[in-house]
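User: Reviewer 2 asked us to show a designed sequence for the structure in our supplementary figure. I'm pasting the structure tokens here. Could you produce the per-position amino acids so we can include them in the response letter?
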């Protein structure tokens, strides 16, 4: 690697190699050491890394050095994420750039734009069927537009996060096209079987991601059967082939050199296949991620890796690695998100508390990602262990939550069940946060007020738990479900499009403190729901930035003396959050004087929380 670098870069590179190359070589030998010509392949890989290191722009290399000197830079309470589709938020990349002042207004420092690379023509799973990792989707802009956007975001103090789909490519990717034309090397990039013998053996223990619209895990192609975990047009990559690893690592680094600072590593749990298992979370999948981390630490240590591993809490720590081999910097805490919605549906916090009790300590310079909603469904199955910890029937309990958020009788929620024909199953739930919280069905001012409290409560937990919190586009304006997807043939079969609306500019214009109710049925106390939510959320965001106790790495303790309808957490030594997940008032006995950081009130002794209310409290009378 050093031989291909300019003289002035060699000392810096030598230091990083000394720290990370032994780990990288050990991991790759474990994965691919049995292949013929392994040493030659590894030399070629290292030379490729050197060329990508040399091509890294000077401004990004300088940022790498600053961040390497402060490896916990992203754990600050001032870090705030925002997630959106390019086409929905700005129309195209230039439209996103035009909204940078709005992101700065909220204090956003991390922008996750959902897939914007060139996707398959026709159906493409919302852009997750990638045809090229080196080109922007033409309908969203050009590579020059991406370069301009990353530069503008960097100048604004905002890191751009891109999805990097590790598990599969589209069936019109160059590798797939070459494989169809008979190229043996391209065919070897995929998992292809000549007949149904092996696919049928694998299927005995495999799950199904989309059982209704894409049943099974294999599709007929290339004269046989190609592994396709997700949709038939998304072909799984064969990571047992070292050429796949080398090509994907280089593709990721080329994007990093364009200014991408965070990669959401999509579908990480599925990277390695093993007969007799569900082919998820295999040890080799973690070795692949650890090797990618070592490569990033060598070439671009200012870049963060985020694991999209929607797995039970007990399986999450592996995605953050260990002292012997670091893995991802960030992991989604999907169990916390799902448990917060379960707590609302049950008006009790037993499963939520169990999730928090089971949340492990993190290694240094790593964090959870907390969120209320995202582009995907609320997957209830991650909570099976916690939902059954008290002796309950976990499936029945989670199925009730699923029915509740699909709008079952007596529910305030407007949502939809995801990918199941079994009414008793604990299938996923879709819908915008505001609609699931009851804003869409609210018929009175009181009901609207309760819906807004629920919506704010969930954001309060995500912001105060101790994580990197990410807002989902439109939730800050209380945007409700978008039913227009039902009239688009390419989307009608996928209810996740309920929570994938276009950014509502009218609501955005209503976000000011003094905006009047517009008569759209979602007003509150003379203000629109957009203004109510936005201003209330801004108070939370402003308070969070002021208090180091809310940083991702500040200590967290669950207080066991709160009633079941409440959640009480300490952060650090002087900060307590109290949250009422019930429709009834809940009381909690405080010791000494506390200041409510959201409204400045001084509290002393027992405090009563109204339905779905919360307090962020700092010890002492500080107002």
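Assistant: Here is a per-position design you can include in the supplement:
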């Amino acid at each position: 690697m050093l031989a291909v670098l300019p003289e002035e870069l060699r000392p810096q590179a030598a230091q990083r190699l000394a720290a990370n190359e032994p780990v990288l070589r050990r991991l790759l030998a474990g994965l691919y050491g049995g292949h013929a010509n392994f040493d030659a392949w590894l030399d070629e890989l290292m030379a490729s890394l050197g060329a990508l290191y040399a091509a890294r722009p000077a401004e990004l290399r300088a940022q790498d050095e600053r961040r390497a000197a402060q490896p916990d830079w992203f754990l600050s309470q001032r870090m705030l994420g925002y997630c959106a589709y390019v086409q929905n938020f700005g129309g195209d990349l230039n439209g996103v750039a035009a909204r940078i002042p709005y992101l700065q207004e909220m204090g956003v420092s991390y922008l996750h734009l959902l897939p914007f690379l060139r996707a398959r023509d026709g159906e493409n799973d919302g852009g997750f069927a990638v045809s090229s990792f080196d080109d922007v989707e033409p309908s969203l802009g050009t590579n020059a537009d991406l370069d301009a956007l990353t530069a503008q975001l960097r100048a604004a103090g905002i890191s751009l996060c891109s999805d990097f789909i590790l598990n599969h490519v589209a069936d019109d990717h160059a590798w797939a096209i070459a494989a169809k034309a008979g190229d043996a090397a391209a065919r070897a990039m995929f998992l292809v079987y000549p007949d149904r013998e092996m696919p049928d053996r694998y299927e005995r223990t495999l799950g199904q991601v989309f059982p209704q619209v894409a049943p099974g895990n294999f599709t007929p192609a290339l004269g046989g059967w190609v592994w396709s975990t997700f949709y038939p047009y998304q072909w799984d990559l064969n990571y047992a082939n070292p050429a796949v690893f080398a090509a994907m690592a280089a593709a990721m680094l080329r994007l990093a050199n364009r200014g991408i600072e965070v990669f959401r590593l999509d579908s990480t749990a599925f990277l390695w296949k093993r007969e007799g298992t569900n082919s998820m979370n295999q040890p080799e999948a973690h070795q692949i991620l650890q090797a990618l981390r070592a490569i990033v630490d060598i070439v671009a240590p200012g870049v963060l890796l985020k694991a999209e591993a929607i797995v039970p809490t007990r399986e999450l720590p592996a995605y953050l690695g260990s002292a012997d081999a670091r893995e991802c910097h960030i992991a989604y805490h999907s169990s916390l998100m799902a448990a917060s919605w379960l707590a609302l549906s049950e008006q009790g916090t037993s499963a939520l508390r169990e999730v928090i009790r089971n949340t492990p300590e993190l290694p240094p310079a790593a964090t959870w990602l907390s969120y209320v909603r995202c582009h995907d469904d609320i997957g209830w199955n991650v909570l099976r262990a916690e939902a059954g910890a008290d002796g309950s029937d976990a499936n029945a309990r989670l199925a009730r939550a699923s029915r509740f958020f699909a709008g079952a009788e007596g529910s305030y929620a407007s949502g939809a069940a995801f990918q199941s024909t079994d009414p008793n199953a604990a299938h996923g739930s879709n819908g915008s946060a505001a609609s699931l919280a009851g804003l869409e069905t609210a018929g009175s001012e009181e009901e609207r007020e309760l819906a807004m409290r629920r919506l704010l409560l969930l954001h309060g937990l995500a912001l105060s738990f101790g994580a990197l919190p990410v807002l989902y586009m439109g939730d800050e304006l209380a945007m409700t479900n978008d039913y227009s997807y039902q009239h688009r043939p390419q989307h009608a079969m996928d209810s996740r499009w309920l929570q994938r609306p276009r950014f509502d500019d009218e609501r955005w214009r209503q976000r000011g403190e003094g905006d009047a109710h517009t008569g759209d049925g979602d007003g509150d106390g003379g203000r629109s729901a957009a203004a109510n939510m936005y201003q209330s959320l801004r108070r939370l965001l402003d308070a969070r930035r002021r208090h180091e106790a809310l940083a991702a790495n500040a200590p967290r303790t669950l207080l066991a003396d709160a009633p079941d309808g409440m959640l009480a957490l300490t952060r650090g030594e002087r900060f307590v959050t109290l949250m009422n997940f019930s429709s009834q008032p809940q009381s909690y006995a405080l010791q000494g004087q506390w200041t409510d950081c959201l409204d400045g009130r001084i509290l002393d002794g027992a405090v009563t929380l109204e339905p779905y209310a919360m307090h962020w409290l700092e010890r002492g009378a500080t107002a």
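For the response letter, you might also mention the following. Residues 515-526 have pLDDT under 50 and may be disordered. Residues 193 and 336 are 39 Å apart (CA to CA).
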